[in-house]
Specification:
Layout (H helix, E strand, L loop, with lengths): L12 H29 L2 H19 L21 H4 L5
Length: about 90
């Protein structure tokens, strides 16, 4: 008996091809899951941050020039006197 769709012998290869596609998709998804699980299980993202990214950021930001706020003069009379009575009128 021949298949009506593919005109071949008793077994239809169309169903087998679909199964092979699903099997490949499942294999790829399982591989992605295995990689992501090992990253999570061994905390590889945290180790990458600690051993690679953080030293790079420390080196970059520790060498920056910063303004020393302790050497700045403290000017207490810089701002005008605040008048509370003009803001809050009595009797309201």
């Amino acid at each position: 008996m021949k298949c009506k769709k593919c005109k071949k012998s008793t077994k239809c290869s169309v169903g087998g091809a679909i199964f092979k596609v699903f099997l490949k998709i499942f294999g790829v998804l399982f591989g992605v899951f295995a990689v992501l699980f090992s990253i999570f299980f061994f905390d590889l993202d945290g180790k990458l941050m600690f051993y690679v990214v953080e030293p790079f950021l420390k080196k970059h930001y520790d060498n920056m020039d910063r303004k020393d706020t302790l050497k700045k003069d403290y000017d207490i009379n810089k701002y005008p006197k605040y008048d509370y009575e003009s803001v809050y009128k009595k009797g309201e």
